[in-house]
Design a protein that fits this description.
Layout: E1 2-10, H1 16-30, E2 35-42, E3 53-59, H2 62-70, H3 72-81, E4 85-94, H4 101-115, H5 117-124, E5 128-130
Parallel strand pairs: 4-5
Antiparallel strand pairs: 1-3, 1-4, 2-3
Helix pairs in contact: 1-3, 2-4, 4-5
Amino acid sequence: MFVNLLRFRFKDGVTEAEQAQALAAITRTSKTDAVSFSVVGRDLGDPAEGYTHAYCVGIADLSALQKYFDAPEHREGDLLFLPRVARLRRIALTDDADPALGEKIQALHREKMAGDPEWAALLAAIPVIEL
């Protein structure tokens, strides 16, 4: 099992309605069959760090991650969500003992970016991003 946590803040000027729409879109992503558990909502960390919201999903294994990346809801959600994000930080953790798991996950991520230039460009356009 591995957990992917995204802490984020919307861009200034993104309305409450647009925020709600973006949160609904990523909540749909978090409910796909590939996800074991999820939380989408407020970030409870230090406000001085600049994050207001969080997205967390538990993914069982690499096969489930590939299914998650390929889910139409994932791309649809990101196309609506990513352009509205000003700041994004990814934190990942696992209980898997495979020392190469991080690299395997990164390889799947690179493959997704290479296969979907529009999605990759949306990520690259986020003003402050830590993946």
